Amino acid sequence: MRILITGASGMLGTALVEMAADKYEILAQFNKTEPIKGAVEYLQCDFNHAEFLLPMLNRLKPDAVIHLAAITDTNFCEENPDFTSKLNVTAVFIIARWCAQQSIPFIFTSTDLVFDGKNPPYSETCEQNPLMVYGEQKAMAEKKILSIYPGALICRVPLMFGYKNGKPGGFLRGLIDTIGKKEYASQFRDEYRTPVYTRRVAKGILIGLKKKLKGYLHLGGSQRLSRYHLGLLVCEVFDLDSVYNKPSWLKDTELAKKRPLDVSLDSGLAIENGYDPGDLKADFIDLRERLRIN
Q1: Domain 163-193+224-263+279-291 in CATH: superfamily?
Q2: Does the domain made of 2-160+195-218 have the CATH classification 3.40.50.720?
């Protein structure tokens, strides 16, 4: 099976290419940063230009598409909604429609930020009510996908940690860099997530592909933690001084209007299908050893 993985040079894409390359023929799409070794074919394509999409798909003729590519910087999405919508909504619709026409599997990664944080934990049947532009775009993309391709699978993922290009990725990179320089990192005590290792999510996506699952699937972690307590765990595992993990309160900031307090995911359905959300501390240790950070 030839699988097109978009966003293959990102943090989740890195893990997915690594874990799928020995089972499938991988076509790895990237925009600016070339993906890790292991993919049988690298291809560069800027999905902000919709006219490039169909020629690429028709040339590659994949047997399945796993669409990870997105602009995930929530602040950038707030400030540039029209620009980010091209990738986060328009491109998704084009790819999903093409997959529907070809009757091939289409897996899309969405976010826990499609929820408002008022009634956690969130299962697959909970109603969307995003507070921020990024969440709105993902919610819109979800609806468009299932309206044209009910057989598609939408994997909602939470705050993730992992690596790309041999370095920590996502929130972890900034946290390690800041505290490592003996600078304070403000972490909310009242913002809760179910953080998860990218390698766990990658396995969950591959389970969905193998089992031909459709609809929604939540791939969250095993523990509900505040950003502050997550920071303490990072300090413990990566031998950082936790005094610089500074507690603060989301509810006391202007961000509270646009940032949900608790979008913890219920991943019971995925677990029933063989997904293992893992142990958070053990997964941070695994990541540390892979990066050889001591």
Answers
A1: UDP-galactose 4-epimerase, domain 1 (3.90.25.10)
A2: yes
Give the 3-state DSSP-derived string for the chain, with helices as H, strands as E and coil as C. Answer: CEEEEECCCCHHHHHHHHHHCCCCEEEEEECCCCCCECECEEEECCCCCHHHHHHHHHHHCCCEEEECCCCCCHHHHHHCHHHHHHHHHHHHHHHHHHHHHHCCCEEEEEEHHHCCCCCCCECCCCCCCCCCHHHHHHHHHHHHHHHHCCCCEEEEECCEECEECCEECHHHHHHHHHHHCCCCEEEECCCEECCEEHHHHHHHHHHHHHCCCCEEEECCCCCCEEHHHHHHHHHHHCCCCHHHEEEECHHHCHHHHCCCCECCECCHHHHHCCCCCCCHHHHHHHHHHHHCCC
% pLDDT > 90, the chain: 83
pLDDT tens-place string over residues 112-140: 999 999 999 999 999 999 999 999 999 99
Q: What is the pLDDT of residues 76-93, one digit of tens each?
A: 999 999 999 999 999 999
